[in-house]
Specification:
Layout (H helix, E strand, L loop, with lengths): L22 H4 L12 E4 L5 H12 L3 E6 L3 H11 L3 E3 L5 H14 L3 E6 L14 H29 L2 E6 L2 H5 L5 H21 L4 E8 L5 H4 L3 H9 L9 H11 L11 E4 L7
Parallel strand pairs: 1-2, 1-4, 2-3, 4-5, 5-6, 6-7
Helix pairs in contact: 2-10, 4-5, 5-7
Length: about 280
């Protein structure tokens, strides 16, 4: 497990075992289909959808790092079970993001795939929503995306390659009672995605969004059966989605095969909301 202190980190010894090789030339130069050695970073990557994404990238031979903020026990269990290194910092803190990305680059290699998955909810009707609840969600679910992209985009532009996938939500597309903060943040991600895609396309960087619907995670499982039945009744396919189904969508957008797709939002919601 790692924190955001980069003072005691050093490059992986595997770089020293390749004659004439450096991280700069080992990683992306031109259009290379092989993903082996590319570093993928998943924020909020130790539980739920984030954990499924991290494992899917690992299974596709990416070198994966996962971040988390609060649950040490879950993060330690995830790292032990998957072999994916975990790094702890608050993605709402821009300085922590810059330091953490630098640490991952020193440990695994420069980040070429970024999945902005970290997110929280603080639900309340607007007339009962506190300023703190508003700020907490906007900073974690939207500002964090800026912090992370700002930390990785210079390196991606330098090498002429990158994949950024921002995890939005069905509720950022259609709105939801009691979630003005969450819906605003997740809708903001969609506009951010399009703008950054325009800025980055000429540099070989794609920026896309995923908008999951209701997925069978611990958060959804915590709601009452009555509410859950009501949710499923609104989904044309008649069930909740699975985290691995979202992960496969992210895996595609992170691939070379998706190089002509940028500024797009891929909905994974069982037909509940169609755009």
């Amino acid at each position: 497990m790692y924190g955001a202190d980069i003072s005691n980190t050093h490059p992986d010894s595997r770089w020293q075992n390749e004659p004439g090789s450096t991280k700069a030339n080992r990683f992306r130069v031109g259009a290379v289909a092989d993903v082996v050695g590319r570093t993928a970073l998943v924020t909020g990557g130790t539980r739920g959808i984030g954990a499924a994404i991290a494992k899917a990238l690992r299974d596709a031979d990416y070198a994966v790092a996962a971040t988390y903020h609060g649950n040490d026990e879950a993060a330690e269990g995830f790292e032990a079970a998957t072999g994916i290194p975990v790094f702890k910092w608050d993605v709402a803190d821009d300085e922590a993001c810059a330091a953490g990305v630098a640490q991952i680059a020193a440990t695994l290699g420069p980040v070429e795939i970024l999945v902005n998955n970290a997110g929280i909810t603080r639900d309340a009707m607007l007339h009962k929503l506190s300023s703190e609840q508003w700020r907490d969600v906007i900073e974690t679910d939207l500002t964090a995306c800026f912090n992370m992209c700002r930390a990785v985009i210079p390196g991606m532009r330098k090498v002429g390659y990158g994949r950024i996938v921002n995890v939005s939500s069905i509720n950022g597309q259609k709105g939801q009672l009691g979630q003005t903060n969450y819906a605003a943040a997740k809708a903001g991600l969609l506009g951010f995605t399009k703008a950054l895609a325009l800025e980055s396309a000429a540099k070989g960087i794609t920026v896309n969004a995923i908008a999951p619907g209701y997925i069978a995670t611990d958060m959804v499982a915590a709601v009452s059966q009555k509410i859950l039945d009501g949710i499923v009744a609104q989904i044309p396919v008649g069930r909740l989605g699975r985290p691995d189904e979202v992960a496969r969508a992210v895996l595609f957008l992170a691939s070379d095969e998706a190089g002509f797709i940028t500024g797009s939002t891929l909905t994974v919601n069982g037909g509940q909301y169609m755009t």
